[in-house]
Structures are given as C-alpha cells and as structure tokens.
Amino acid sequence: MTFINPKTDYAFKKIFGSSDSKDILISFLNALIYDGNPTIKYLEIINPNLPPRIIGLKDTYLDVKAQLADGTIVIIEMQVLNVESFDKRVLYNAAKTYAFQLQKGEGYRMLKPVIALTITDFEMFKNSERLISRFVYKESKTNLTYTDNNIQLLFVELPKFTKELSQLETLADKWIYFIKYANTLTQVPQIMDSIPEIHQAFDIANQVNLSPEELAELESREMFIYDQQGALIKARQEEKQAIARQLLDRLDDETISQTTGLSIEEVRNLRSARN
Q1: How many CB atoms are closer than 10 A to CB 230?
Q2: For a tag site, which of 61, 148, 168, 247 has the least CB within 10 Å?
Q3: H or E stretch including 114?
Q4: Measured torsion, CA atoms of residues 10, 15, 16, 17, in degrees rounded to the nearest 10
C-alpha cells in the first residue's frame, strides 16, 4: 500500500475535512486538545474559508474548520513551510474567526470560544522542548485567566515528535505518528489499526482509493511545497552569506561561522572569493 502525505494541505483536508471525516476529526481533536478524553461527541465541519466582510481586509484560508456541540469553533492548519511572520498569521486567523461570529445587532454574549490548532513541520519554539504547546490569555504575574480562555492557540511541532512505532502509547501519539509518517508506510501498523478512526484515515489516505485527478492535484501540491522549501533554503543561505561578508573585516572565520551558522569552509570560501 502507498499512502498520501497528510502534511500537504490537499491531503490534510481530504483526510480530516471531507464530508466523511466527522468521526476521524472528533478522534483527532479529542486526542490533541483534550488529552484523549472523549470530550467531543459531535461536531459540524464547515467551510474553512473566511472571506473579508470589510473591504481591504485579508481573506482567511484554513485547512479545516469545525463547530462543536457547545458552539466552540476549532480552526486547524497544517503548515509545512516556515514562512515569514507565520506566528502573526496564526493569531490573526484566530482573532478574525472570533470577531466575525457576530451578525449585525448581536451582542458580545453570543461569542463562542475559538481554538486554533496548528500543526507545523518545523520548530516554532526553539527554546521549548514541549511537543504540544497551549497559549491562553492570562495576567502576567498572577496567571489569572482572562474571560474563560475564549481564544486558545494550540501548536503541535512535528520535529519534536521522536517516538518509534513500538513506543506509541496515547491516542495523541498515534495521530501525530500518522501525520508525520503515513506516507512512508507500506501497511497500516497493527498498534494503530485497532482504532477505527485511524483505520478510516488510512483508508482515505490509500492512493488506491484516489482518482487520477486527485493524485495529479496531490502531486502538484507536493511539487509546489518542494519548490518553496528550496527557495526558502536558498534565500536564508544568501542572507547568511551577506551577513558574513559584512563581518569579514572585523571577525575571524570561526566567530563568523558561529554568528551566521555557515560552516568554517563556507566562510573561508567567501573570504577567498573577495580576495
């Protein structure tokens, strides 16, 4: 068997945001938001695109959006590329989703909580070892919670997940393993196949069940991501080199290497090229 890559936006939406994905999404959200407890019994998957109501305001494009039985809105984004100001984009999307619940004439009491769940294929918080991070509004000295945490930001950083298949314990472990490694597997692991929702997710992800048009779209999205990753790597390398050139007259090669992240050999090549 060959499985599509859940980390691409097209595949992620197909697995977690299609009309047949309610049970999958309930299990996934219970695992990551509620520590595996069956808190969510029902949800409605809704249009994830939030167009602007004000001329000039940016559109919001999400991967999956759902409303829980108590009215809580969950917005989910799978992000592969570490683009500039991504942290601000997450906050913008959450705040916009929260604010635009109200129709004309409705009071603020009608506002429901928003949970923004973001899965990244890169490290967002390099100074933290936590795999799952949750941010809420609190008073900075006393930790007093502000308005029942009406906006929560949840992050799952895939590079920080290092468990092997035999080490999977929790439901969260198994869902994160699915997202990170599904496209490298050739069969459904027995330890995961016992969970009906994960079994269903693997069925959707099985390339055998995709049409030629869907496979072509998936390949197109993957190629775009690879191209963008290459462009980002090149841009960051060029930025490091530009900084190093400015330091050549002031610092030794080893210090420049430590400052910029370039190897000593790369710094020496820059110095030789200048001479």
Answers
A1: 10
A2: 148
A3: strand 114-120
A4: 60
Query: What's the one-letter identity of residue 245?
Result: R
C-alpha–C-alpha distance, residues 209 and 151, integer Å? 38
Tokens 């420049």, located at residue = 256
C-alpha to C-alpha distance for 262 and 240, rounded to whole angstroms? 7
Query: What is the full DSSP assignment across 134-192?
Result: EE--B-TTT-PBSGGGSEEEEEEEGGG----GGG--SHHHHHHHHHHHGGG-SS--HHH
Tell me how far the alpha carbon of residue 22 is from its chain's centroid: 19
Q: Specify the residue for token string 């393993």.
A: 177
| Domains of the chain by residue range | 9-210, 225-274
pLDDT tens-place string over residues 131-169: 999 999 999 999 998 877 799 999 999 999 999 999 999
CB crowding 2-14: b at 16 or more within 10 Å, else e: ebbbbbbbbbbbb
Q: What is the pTM of this model?
A: 0.80
Query: 3-49 pLDDT, tens per residue?
Result: 999 998 889 999 999 888 999 999 999 999 999 999 999 999 987 65
**Cα separation, 190 vs 172, whole angstroms:** 16
